Amino acid sequence: MKSAIWKLGAVGLTALLASSPAFAAVAEAPVAEVAEAVAEVAEPAADAVGGGTAYIFNTLLFLIGGFLVMWMAAGFAMLEAGLVRAKNTSTQCLKNIGLYSIAGLMFWVVGYNIAYPGFAEDSMGLIGGFSGIYSMQGVGEADIDTGYSVASDWFFQMVFCATTASIVSGTLAERIKIVPFFIFVTVLTGLIYPVVVSWEWGGGYLDSQWGFSDFAGSTLVHSTGGWAALIGAIILGARIGRYTDGKVNVFPGTNIPLATLGTFILWLGWFGFNGASQLAMGTVGDVSDVSKIFVNTNMAACGGVVIAIILTQIRYKKADVTMAMNGALAGLVSITAEPLAPTVGQSILIGMIGGAIVVFTVPLLDKLKIDDVVGAIPVHLFAGIWGTLVVAWTGDATFSGQLVGVLLTAVWVSAASAVIWLALKYTIGLRPSAEIETAGLDIHEIGVEAYPGLANQA
Amino acid sequence: MMKFVIAIIKPFKLDEVREALAGIGVAGMTVSEVKGFGRQKGQTEIYRGAEYSVNMLPKVKLEIAVSAELMPKVVETIQTTASTQSIGDGKIFVLDLESTTRIRTGETDETAL
């Protein structure tokens, strides 16, 4: 222990000397030699943090990553609150805080155990883990062998589950009743999403049979949310008056500053989403990889924004700020399947292509009369597929393996979602009456207006 | 005799017009944010890849009750101050005003202006 402290001191001194140009010039050769020698001994020394120390750092990574991803719920809420019309804003806010909480309950009640069922050696790994609630650790308990606190892992996994549900909320804004929406979220977070996770992170079918690779969830989280949103949008239909006589009628968002803040919050949260998906910070190698993931994640988003600005400027002669926001998120989704292996240049390129996909597919969905209020389908589904497939180029995976992962997710999530959405449609109904939709959902579904008018301010 | 002047002007001209009117002795006015169109029609905007036309453009409406003697000066002042020599500068309407009552005191007509 003492010698380790001495070595740390030597590293610090060397760094100090090297950072002083005058001193370095005088004693260039000896300093370089010392630095080299110290580097040799420093690496194994620092790498050797084991036992409790590694446990603490790994757990800390889960906790920091977890609360950053939790904060993404705020990002989704603000992005959506900004892009809907004023009369539906309270409803959108309630949907976001409600879905986060339902995801939390469901992931504890059944979700986690379905996601991590501990498949048997000879199992196909398709479905399992219906053992009920997750037994959280007791007070003062810590199993050093796991390498991290199981509660920190559960929390980190739970916020990913909530992110999946957030994606659906934005697409279906302004025209869905809250009760069927929350029922869908219950099934999505308790069953549909955990099953997809079990195939890959739970060591199931995609992981064991296909070598599928999805580092932080371009497919598992984003495409899953995207497919559920797409099927929902098709079954639910467009907002009243959105597409008339072959014309797309625009309902501009109410609050662009709020949507911008939401985008930046999501961007911030993504450092937890991708960075903490390294799942370990107990060694020099891991903490360096987390750092590289931060850089790649950031650069992909930057690429997505810049390309969205350039393309909308060229195509429409105006730079569309909401497309720039979508570009950032598409860049982030694209890099999520493999944020560690790519070079910075590759990351920027991956993000840029993600951003371009959004600019071209947002009008395409309008042509198909699929009404996606915030652009969640292009951002999370299309860019998610792109990000997953490109891992065959940058990471350790085959194209066929990646394609199987994309297709299997597509089939399962689409089919399961369709069953739930249709069942809700033909029982309690998905949409409010035309009268209520036109008046705004806030008054009838929530009873609280987001921006009360003059008459209400007395 | 009293006159009621309604002026529709470009929003960014409001401060200038208010100062000019105060300068010629106008004691008060009511201002609202309004939307409308005239010869300027609307303009085309782009939102998420779809074009849409904004038919109603934002303007500011001034409502001013003045004595008949002051009215021509008020109209002239608004016209010269609010003009940018370009389309969409707005319009000024003048109506006969039947009566005025100050709510606090109950004073009426010219004394209430």
UniProtKB/TrEMBL annotation, chain A:
Keyword list, A-Z: Ammonia transport, Membrane, Signal, Transmembrane, Transmembrane helix, Transport
Places the protein is found: Membrane
UniProt keyword Nucleotidyltransferase, yes or no: no
Membrane topology reported for the UniProt record: Multi-pass membrane protein
InterPro entries xrefs: Ammonium/urea_transptr, Ammonium_transpt_CS, Ammonium_transptr_marine, NH4_transpt_AmtB-like_dom
Domain Ammonium transporter AmtB-like: 62-451
Similarity-based family: Belongs to the ammonia transporter channel (TC 1.A.11.2) family.
Record protein name field: Ammonium transporter
Record organism: Aurantiacibacter gilvus
Upper taxonomic lineage: Bacteria, Pseudomonadati, Pseudomonadota, Alphaproteobacteria, Sphingomonadales
